[in-house]
């Protein structure tokens, strides 16, 4: 997990109500899936995690126990012991296609509407508020996408760029919403035939340049166009699947 996220993670992942074991599980799985916690990385202590989430320690322990059962983390004993993130295999294309099949075109459209609102607002605020360290993080993930060699690496670099735009907006709520959307939708956007790494990287670069240049309107418009193109490709793939099913 990068230093910027680690310093502010308490704000981003805090849960308002105690006793929300399922919510803690979901948030941790999102963080692991998006690479906010890297494979092999040791999680913070139970006390620290419970404080970050704003839940009781017993709730946090229940969530960690479930994650151990699912194979997402492992616990090591001894002086250097603790909970560590396990390597997660890339989801097969068939599972992602099944997930897309279960989403209706109306649901995809609603996701697009929400993501447009979040990404556009985040980019506009980032152009207004971003500091040099935010610019560096955005450049890092643009370069990471260019170097990525697998679908999982590309998806993570793409998701982290969008999350860092929200971080640069300096809005806790927008960052939280972007993380949730990337966990829900991001992997589908990298189904075979839906995304060109070169095209996505070029669009990221344009968004970054508008943010770094302080062009509020251009940053928002480019971010919205970027999201809209991705969702439209998913909707087209969904319609193609329905057409093939009816033949």
Provide the descriptors you would attach to this structure in a database record.
11 helices; globular; WH_DNA-bd_sf; 2 strands; Tscrpt_reg_HTH_GntR; 3% strand; transcription regulation; transcription; GntR_C; Four Helix Bundle (Hemerythrin (Met), subunit A); Arc Repressor Mutant, subunit A; 2 domains; mainly alpha; two-stranded antiparallel ribbon
Count of beta strands: 2
Order of helices and strands: HHHHEEHHHHHHH
Low-confidence residue ranges: 3-19
Proper CATH architecture of the largest domain: Up-down Bundle
DSSP helix count?
11
Strand proportion: under 5%
Spatial order of the strands forming the largest sheet: 1-2
Largest sheet: 2 strands, antiparallel
Predict the CATH topology of the largest domain: Four Helix Bundle (Hemerythrin (Met), subunit A)
Straight-line distance between termini: 47 Å
CATH homologous superfamily placement of the largest domain: GntR ligand-binding domain-like
Pfam families: FCD, GntR
Keywords: DNA-binding, Transcription, Transcription regulation
Protein name: FCD domain-containing protein
Domain HTH gntR-type: 18-88
């Amino acid at each position: 997990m990068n230093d910027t996220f680690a310093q502010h993670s308490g704000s981003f992942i805090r849960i308002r109500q105690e006793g929300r074991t399922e919510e803690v599980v979901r948030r941790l799985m999102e963080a692991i899936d998006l690479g906010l916690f890297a494979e092999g990385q040791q999680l913070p202590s139970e006390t620290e995690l419970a404080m970050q989430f704003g839940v009781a320690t017993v709730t946090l322990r229940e969530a960690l126990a479930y994650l151990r059962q699912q194979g997402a983390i492992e616990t090591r004993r001894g002086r250097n012991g603790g909970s560590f993130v396990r390597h997660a295999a890339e989801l097969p294309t068939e599972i992602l296609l099944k997930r897309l099949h279960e989403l209706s075109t109306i649901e995809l459209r609603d996701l697009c509407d929400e993501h447009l609102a979040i990404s556009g607002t985040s980019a506009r605020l980032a152009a207004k508020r971003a500091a040099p360290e935010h610019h560096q993080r955005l450049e890092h993930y643009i370069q990471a996408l260019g170097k990525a060699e697998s679908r999982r690496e590309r998806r993570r670099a793409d998701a982290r760029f969008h999350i860092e735009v929200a971080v640069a907006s300096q809005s806790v709520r927008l960052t939280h919403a972007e993380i949730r959307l990337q966990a829900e939708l991001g992997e589908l956007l990298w189904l075979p035939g839906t995304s060109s790494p070169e095209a996505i990287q070029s669009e990221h670069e344009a968004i970054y340049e508008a943010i770094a240049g302080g062009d509020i309107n251009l940053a928002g418009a480019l971010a919205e166009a970027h999201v809209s193109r991705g969702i439209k490709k998913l909707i087209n793939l969904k319609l193609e699947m329905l057409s093939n099913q009816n033949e």
